[in-house]
Every structure is written in structure tokens, then in C-alpha cells.
Specification:
Membrane topology: Multi-pass membrane protein
Radius of gyration: 31 Å
Pfam families: Plug (PF07715), TonB_dep_Rec_b-barrel (PF00593)
Shape: elongated
Number of strands: 49
Keywords: Cell outer membrane, Membrane, Receptor, Signal, TonB box, Transmembrane, Transmembrane beta strand, Transport
Helix content: under 10%
Largest sheet: 22 strands, antiparallel, barrel
Subcellular location: Cell outer membrane
Protein name: TonB-dependent receptor
């Protein structure tokens, strides 16, 4: 039996729990036969499955391996996204936007502010933004996942602003385990097959253990056209309803210009297959917009193979050698509708065999090219301009599908030695770790913009239109072939071949680090009334490098199709020291069952931003064993990542509204004056002729080597109530503020446009820095918005986490009820200090993005006996409102959604287990919205777009 000193040490370890970054060791003493004291070391790694949140001075949610089985989780993000603390990041539905990876985003503060760990050390990032693709973590080897919310920078370093997600892998596995599973929707699509094989065992008289795992996943594609709600891109009709919409980049070619106002109510024309023109129909149930939805992926295909091994060996009683190695090869394509080109181009008009004489006259009067005096350039004097020039909108179906094929290959390994120094309570852990992620991407369906312009000008000495005015190849493998864009399907194969351009890229992210930690206590020197002081000190040295190498057309941005992307190369190194102290002031006293204090401090020296530091102060007080109050105050830093520092200017296409177009809601003279002052001609002011194509604007972003670190503070105050071993309840208030936030200037393109054209804003108006970032073409359409990164923003987040567990015996088995809920009372971002906040608590839309309900929860009801386990999961997503009060969107509120999943597991013949599951039990259709959606007329990472899904898996263990 342990003596009183030992009992205090054990309770100290349990109270310390997951709050420590290093392994905490406590010594227990027992008398041997000779009366001498023998040392039994108890190691607490900070994880208590299911109830870890009740032993930490910071909120910790824990998901164990059983949940991966019962929910048939193949890709980890799908399970993590059900947690109320998580706002979905990229996942299997992320076709546009998306890059083939899966990410985790705590509190909605950004995946780049969520640190991903494997067994307490960093996972290797995938992209220049330092974000980890959690597809690279082998699901079959996950023992449990701990989600520590709130600032953890003092413990783990940069990027842990929102918290950490720690994947704890299985160890000391003995035997053979194989698992095969498959899932499919009730519609018979979106299938996912997975299989894995694990073998492990002890050796050298149980001094060592080695585990090997191989896993394979094959995920089928599914298309937006496979569901009624997403098969047609929808617009808001302005009258409280939705109507078919899409893109003005149409297969027959459309041109919008104020010169067409007398000819077309929409100020636009569309070409018929014979080269004729007619007014563009821009509204109603039957219109001319191109429906791009059906061929877009709803579920991205994936083929993934993984090899992993974990090993340890006891070198002596006080030293253990350990290591792990993981390899992942993942292939993920994405697919969009054929390339739309929106480009101001000059094309042959007079004498063109592709355009009817009547259409030539209409076009000449509207957009014919003139000289400096405004006279038509008409060489033959027939009243028709030789050429015309305008923003051409053409869907290049003849070029073929627009497809990106990405292959991610990652490996990471770690080896180290840990143990104790002699017979003391002091332990050490020294390790070396290295990882590399390689991504190769091939893009199909891109076209060269320069060759597009070249192929529009004809040599009229050839009356057939088969000769370019400039016949050179301009970098193509073939000579220039003219293109007839005037009518659907009219581009010849020779013309399409001339436009096509091979685009590919490769990138490499490398992370290398060493670490050394010492941990122990003060028992050899002094003790507090509650026991010895826990101590941990550590050093870490980390180097990170990234290189992105695009092909020539991709680098120059002279493509239409996917976004241009210039080369990126950069890196940084950082050395850091950290220390932690745990003071068990009182333990087991009559007036206090527990009074403790935690302190942590980290200082780090970056090659980019210099020296930074962060600290933590936390403590708890338990007047009785069943009630504990806890409080924590953390400061955190996030150094700018490689992308934010070193990226050259590149383009993206976020959702936005042009206040000067028909899309704008304030058509006052004050707004009009700003519009005309920034280059909008009067004849297209508030006209659909300058509507943003597909509700997107070309945003030019880029890095800034002068960036400094972000600084954050996190306050948590909580209560834990455990009246018995069967009941636990916890409630924690959190208050997070991030200053000097690295963000695109102005809070992004949409906010820049809104601020520039807001007459009441002191920041906007003619001559403001907001309006200066907006570049318009001569016809009034927006060419680009400049949004370079700066330390200008601020973020505040407040709310309450609630967690509860209740277990009891009934119905011939054990019943466990687990609940996790989050109330978000404030989620504000300030584009600039002093600027009005963008309020996102309970909101969604073009500024806030993914829905952030004020309330979410995940609740499970589980019944089990020796052979059978059954679980009902209930996920609630609270109601949200559109973040743009001035926009007349049809769907301004999305009501709360409830999703239920039912699963059951049966073990038989000692070695075998079968699991059946149904997700989205009641086949809920997602909310269908118009112009304020993300993709597929909804937000597919938040709301289930697949419908009822069935799963079956079989497991054998020996």
C-alpha cells in the first residue's frame, strides 16, 4: 500500500494531467522485504480517455479510438469536424476552394493557428502556410485525439494560438489486427473503401516492442449534378426566391458593354452558333447563364497508401530507445467546369467569316475600335470597324475539362531516448525528428491568354478564316490556328490545341528538429504542503524550408483556368527554451482538497522576426474532491509563415459584390460619385454589364518580409463537478484576443470594396487607400483588388464550453452519455485597429465564410455489454444569419440543423468484430442558398450534402 507521501504524488500526477507538455513523473515508494524503499515510477502523459477534460487546468476534449470505429472514420477530419470547438476546414468536399488536403480549424481562428501534434511533437506541414494535412496521420494507429483549446504557445511554441490537436498513437501493440470497411450513400454513390493491417509484438524478453501498419483508402468521386439541390447553380431573384443562375462565361461567348444598352436591357449580347447576336437574357427561370454545377466534384476522389511503424527498446532500467516512421502517398484530383476566360480582347470584325453582317453592325456600333478622335477605324469605309474590343466572356468547352491532379507524398520519422537519471525522480527525453512533404500537381484545361488574343485576329487575305494575322507559334507546339469563339462549339480542334497549355508544379516542405526535455520534482530538496513541485525544462531547435516550382505559364499567370501561382522559396529556423512549474500548494486538506498553480514560459529566437516570448499562469481550487474551480491565462505568439513572408504576388477569386454594379444595394448619388471617380462609366453605373462573374473578384495577394509576429491572450475560467465516478460536468468560459493579426489588407477583397464605396465610412471614399487598391478596366468592370498581407487586424472571440458525462447500468449493459457543447457569444474580426468589427458569431457569408453558430453540440448515447456496442450520435448546428445586412439575399437565415448517426458493433468467436453504421439517419437535405453560398448552393463542410450513408466494417484480431 502506498504511504501518504505516495498518495499525494499520485494525486499530483492526476491533477497535473494533460496540462503539462512534458511527461510528468511522480515517485511512489513501497517497502521491500528488507524494509528498504524501492522506487516505482508512475508516468502520466496528460491523457485520461473520456475524462481528460476534468483533470486539466485548461479545457481538453478527448476522442478515443472507439469513436473512430463506431463512426466509421476513414479521414480524421470528418470526426474532428463534429466537435463543437472545431469550425470545418478543408475536407473531402473542398473542390473549390480546396487543394486536396484535409485540415483542422479550432474555434474558426484558422488552420494556421491550430498546431497539430503527433505524440506531443509537431507534425510536418504540407503547404507554405505551415498547415498540416491530417490525411498523413494513420487512422488505424490512433489511440485517441486530444483537443486542447486556448493558447498553448508557452508549452508548444508558435502556431498554437487557438490550441493544439494532439494525435496519440498506439504503443505496445501485440498481435495481428486487420480491418476492411466500405461506406456508400443511399443514392449508391460517394463510396469509400478502406483496409488496414497491423502486426506487432514484444521481443528480447519483453524489453522491446515493434508495431507495423499498412493502410489503403480508395474514395470514389461524386458530382454536384448527382443531387437535385446542387445540380443547378442558383441565384437570388431579388423577389425572395431562387432562380437558375451560373456564369456569364458561356459556351457561345457573351459581351457586356454599355454600348449595347439600346439593343439589350442587360447591356449584353450572346452569339448564336451561326455568328449572329441577340440580347443576353440575364434573369428569370430561362436565361443564358452557364450552369457550371453538374461537373464539379461533390466528393473529391482519393487513393491513399500508408506505411507506419512504431518501436521501442529498453537499453537499461533507466533508458529506453524509441522511434516511429510514417509514409503516406495520397492522390487527390479536383475538377471544375471547363475554363471560362474573361479577358479584354481585340478581334477581327469587318470581313470576319465567323460573324454575320448584321451582328458586325451591332457590334461595331457598340464596341468598334476608334482612333484618338473617337472615329471608327474603318479602312474600307463601309461603316463597320475593322476590329472590336471588349471584355470577352467565353466558356472554352472545346478545350476540355478543367482538372487538377495532385499527389502528396510525405514521410516523417523520429527517434530518441528517454529515461531517468540514476535512481532519481528526474527524467529526460531527447529526440531528433525530420519530415518532408512533396506535392506534384498537373493541371488540365488551362489556356494561354496571349495565344487566345493572337488567335482572334485574322489574316483576311484568307477568306476561310483559317489563317492568323500573326501565324507564329508563341510557345505552342503548333503554329497559330484561328479560333471562332462566336457561337457554341465553333472552336476547331486545331484552335483548341493552340490554346491549350501544359501546366504543372511541384513543391517540397521540409521540417527538421531536435528536442531535449528534463522533468522531475523537488522531492530531494523541498516539498510544499501538497507535495513536491513538478518541474520541466526543455530546448527545441527547428528548421523549416519550402520551395514551390511552377511551370512557366503558371508562374507568369498568363493562363485562364486555374489561378496563376509564381514560384515561392523561403524558410526559417527557430531555437526555443521553455520551462514549466507545477505547485501542489495543498492536497487532501480538510479545507481544500486541492489548491495548485501552474506556470510556464517560453522564449524563442526566430531568424525572421527575432526574439519572442509567451507565458502561462493557471491554477485550480477544489474545496471538496467533487468540485474544482480552474482558471488559466495564456499569452501566445504566432510567427509569420513562409507563405506570408515570401510569397510573390498571386491571384485568387474570392466571393464579392461590386457596389457599382446591379449587385449593389445602395444606388444613391453619393455611391455613384465614388464609382465614377474610380473609373466606372456613367452608361454602365449600377448596370449588370459590370456584375462580377459568378460573384467572384480577382484578388491579388502576396507576402511581406516585413511582417512581425501575432500576439494573443487567452483567459479561461471553469468549473468541474464530479459527484461520483459515473457523473462529470464541466463548464469553461473562454476569452481570446489576437493583436497584430496577419491578414490581407482591408479584411479581404469584399470588405475593401464595401469600405471604398461606403460614403459614411471615414476610411473609404475617393482617394482612400481602400479605393486605391481597386483597379478597373476601361469598360468599368473590376480587373483586380490588391490585398497584400500586413499586421493590421485584430480578432476577438468569446464563449463557453460545456461538457458532461454520465454512465450507469441498465437494459442488461452499461450506458454512457457524453455531451460537448459550445456557446460562441462573440467572434469579431477588425480589418484594421479602430475599424468597425466584422461580427461573425451566429453568422455566415462572404465576410465570415463558414457558418459560426452561436451554439453547437455533439452528444452520444452508448450502450454496451460484453459483445455488443450500440451508439446514437446527435450533432446540432445552430442557426446562423447572413453577414451582409445590406444585401437582399433570398436566404438570410439558416435554421438550426440536427444530424443523427446510429452505429452498432458485435464481437463474436473471440477474435472477430463487425460494425454497422448509418450517418444522417433521417436523410436531411442541406440548406439551399443562392449567391451567399460557398459551393454546391450551400456550405458542404458544415452541412451534410451526401444524405443517408451506410457503412460496414469487419475486424479480426489475433
Amino acid at each position: 500500500m502506498l504511504n501518504n507521501k505516495v498518495s499525494k504524488a499520485v494525486r499530483l500526477a492526476l491533477a497535473f494531467g494533460a496540462a503539462s507538455s512534458a511527461v510528468f513523473t511522480a515517485s511512489s515508494f513501497a517497502n521491500d522485504e528488507d524494509g528498504a524503499e524501492a522506487v516505482e515510477r508512475i508516468e502520466v502523459t496528460g491523457s485520461r480517455i473520456r475524462k481528460a477534460e476534468y483533470t486539466s487546468n485548461a479545457p481538453v476534449a478527448s476522442v478515443d479510438s472507439e469513436q473512430f470505429v463506431l463512426t466509421k472514420t476513414v479521414n480524421t477530419e470528418s470526426l474532428l469536424n463534429t466537435l463543437p470547438q472545431v469550425v470545418p476546414g478543408l475536407d473531402r468536399t473542398s473542390n473549390n476552394p480546396g487543394n486536396g488536403t484535409a485540415t483542422v480549424n479550432l474555434r474558426g481562428l484558422g488552420s494556421n493557428r491550430t498546431l497539430v501534434l503527433i505524440n506531443g511533437t509537431r507534425a510536418v506541414p504540407t503547404s507554405s502556410s505551415g498547415v498540416v494535412d491530417i490525411n498523413s496521420i494513420p487512422t488505424a494507429l490512433i489511440q485517441n485525439v486530444e483537443v486542447l483549446t486556448g493558447g498553448a504557445s508557452a508549452v508548444y511554441g508558435s502556431d498554437a494560438v487557438a490550441g493544439v490537436v494532439n494525435f496519440i498513437l498506439k504503443k505496445d501493440f501485440e498481435g495481428i489486427n486487420t480491418n476492411v470497411g466500405y461506406e456508400q450513400t443511399a443514392e449508391g454513390d460517394a463510396g469509400i473503401f478502406n483496409a488496414d493491417f497491423t502486426i506487432g509484438g514484444n521481443f528480447a524478453e519483453d524489453k522491446g516492442n515493434i508495431v507495423f501498419n499498412v493502410a489503403y483508402t480508395k474514395r470514389d468521386d461524386a458530382f454536384q449534378g448527382d443531387r437535385d439541390f446542387s445540380s443547378v447553380a442558383l441565384f437570388d431573384d431579388g423577389n425572395g426566391g431562387l432562380e437558375p443562375g451560373g456564369s456569364s462565361g458561356v459556351p457561345g461567348t457573351a459581351i457586356f458593354n454599355g454600348g449595347f444598352s439600346s439593343y439589350s436591357d442587360s447591356a449584353g449580347v450572346i452569339f448564336g452558333q451561326d455568328g449572329s447576336v441577340r440580347p443576353f437574357v440575364a434573369g428569370g427561370d430561362v436565361n443564358d447563364f452557364y450552369n457550371y454545377a453538374p461537373v464539379n466534384y461533390m466528393q473529391l476522389p482519393q487513393e491513399r497508401t500508408q506505411f507506419s511503424t512504431i518501436a521501442r527498446y529498453e537499453l537499461s532500467d533507466n533508458a529506453e530507445l524509441y522511434g516511429r516512421a510514417m509514409f503516406t502517398d495520397s492522390y487527390v484530383p479536383s475538377q471544375l467546369a471547363p475554363t471560362p476566360i474573361f479577358q479584354t480582347s481585340e478581334f477581327t470584325l469587318d470581313g470576319s467569316p465567323f460573324i454575320t453582317p448584321e451582328a458586325q453592325k451591332v457590334i461595331s456600333d457598340a464596341i468598334g475600335v476608334t482612333d484618338e478622335d473617337g472615329n471608327l477605324i474603318d479602312s474600307d469605309g463601309d461603316g463597320i470597324a475593322d476590329t472590336a474590343s471588349a471584355l470577352v466572356r467565353r466558356r472554352l468547352e472545346e478545350v476540355g475539362p478543367r482538372r487538377s491532379e495532385s499527389t502528396f507524398t510525405s514521410y516523417q520519422y523520429q527517434f530518441g531516448v528517454k529515461g531517468f537519471i540514476g535512481d532519481s525522480v528526474w527524467g529526460y527525453d531527447a529526440y531528433y525528428q525530420k519530415g518532408t512533404t512533396r506535392n506534384s500537381e498537373a493541371q488540365l484545361g488551362n489556356v494561354n491568354r496571349g495565344r487566345f488574343n493572337q488567335a482572334l485576329l485574322l489574316d483576311l487575305s484568307d477568306p476561310t478564316g483559317n489563317t492568323c494575322k500573326d501565324p507564329s507559334s508563341s510557345g505552342s507546339t503548333t503554329a497559330c490556328a484561328p479560333i471562332n469563339i462566336f457561337g457554341e462549339g465553333n472552336i476547331s480542334e486545331a484552335g483548341a490545341a493552340y490554346l491549350r497549355t501544359a501546366v504543372n508544379s511541384s513543391s517540397v516542405y521540409t521540417q527538421e528538429m531536435i528536442g531535449l526535455n528534463f522533468s522531475g520534482d523537488s522531492s530531494d530538496f523541498f516539498e510544499l504542503p501538497g507535495g513536491a513541485v513538478g518541474i520541466s525544462v526543455g530546448y527545441e531547435k527547428r528548421d523549416e524550408d519550402f520551395e514551390f516550382l511552377p511551370s512557366q505559364d503558371l508562374a507568369s499567370g498568363d493562363i485562364a483556368g486555374f489561378n496563376g501561382a509564381p514560384p515561392v522559396s523561403g524558410g526559417f529556423d527557430v531555437s526555443s527554451f521553455n520551462a514549466e512549474l507545477y505547485f501542489p500548494i495543498f492536497v487532501g486538506e480538510d479545507w481544500a482538497d486541492l489548491l495548485d498553480l501552474e506556470l510556464a514560459y517560453r522564449t524563442a529566437d526566430y531568424s525572421t522576426v527575432g526574439s519572442v516570448s509567451s507565458y502561462k499562469v493557471a491554477g485550480s481550487y477544489a474545496p471538496i474532491e467533487e468540485v474544482r474551480f480552474r482558471v488559466g491565462y495564456n499569452t501566445a505568439v504566432r510567427a509569420p509563415n513562409i507563405s506570408e513572408l515570401f510569397s510573390p504576388q498571386s491571384e485568387g477569386f474570392p466571393g464579392a459584390t461590386d457596389p457599382c454594379s446591379e449587385q449593389g444595394t445602395d444606388k444613391s448619388s453619393a455611391v455613384g460619385a465614388i464609382c465614377t471617380g474610380t473609373g466606372v462609366p456613367n452608361n454602365v453605373l449600377f448596370n449588370p454589364a459590370i456584375n462580377l462573374p459568378a460573384g467572384q473578384v480577382r484578388a491579388i495577394s502576396g507576402g511581406n518580409p516585413e511582417l512581425m509576429e501575432e500576439e494573443a491572450t487567452t483567459l479561461t475560467v471553469g468549473l468541474v463537478f464530479t459527484p461520483s465516478d459515473d457523473i462529470s460536468f464541466g463548464i469553461d468560459y473562454f476569452d481570446i484576443q489576437i493583436d497584430d493579426v496577419i491578414a490581407s489588407f482591408g479584411g479581404g477583397a469584399n470588405n475593401i470594396l464595401a469600405t471604398c464605396y461606403d460614403p459614411s465610412s471615414a476610411k473609404g471614399g475617393l482617394g482612400s487607400v481602400y479605393c486605391d487598391t481597386i483597379k478597373r478596366r476601361g469598360d468599368g468592370t473590376i480587373e483586380s483588388v490588391l490585398t497584400l498581407s500586413q499586421n493590421i487586424a485584430k480578432v476577438t472571440l468569446k464563449g463557453v464550453d460545456v461538457a458532461a458525462n454520465y454512465s450507469f447500468e441498465a437494459l442488461g449493459g452499461d450506458i454512457a452519455v457524453d455531451y460537448m457543447g459550445t456557446f460562441t457569444t462573440e467572434s469579431n474580426s477588425f480589418p484594421e485597429v479602430g475599424e468597425d468589427p466584422i461580427e461573425c458569431a451566429g453568422m455566415f457569408g462572404q465576410d465570415c465564410g463558414e457558418p459560426t453558430p452561436k451554439y453547437k453540440h455533439r452528444m452520444t448515447f452508448k450502450w454496451s455489454n460484453d459483445d455488443i456496442t450500440a451508439q446514437l450520435m446527435w450533432r446540432h448546428v445552430g442557426k446562423v444569419n447572413d453577414d451582409d445586412d445590406d444585401t437582399d439575399y433570398t436566404v438570410e437565415e439558416i435554421s438550426g440543423f440536427n444530424y443523427f448517426g446510429l452505429s452498432g458493433s458485435y464481437s463474436f468467436a473471440e477474435n472477430y468484430n463487425v460494425t454497422l453504421g448509418i450517418r444522417n439517419l433521417f436523410d436531411k437535405t442541406p440548406p439551399v442558398i443562392g449567391g451567399n453560398d460557398e459551393q454546391a448552393n450551400t456550405y458542404p463542410a458544415t452541412y451534410d450534402i451526401f444524405g443517408r450513408t451506410y457503412s460496414l466494417s469487419f475486424n479480426a484480431s489475433f
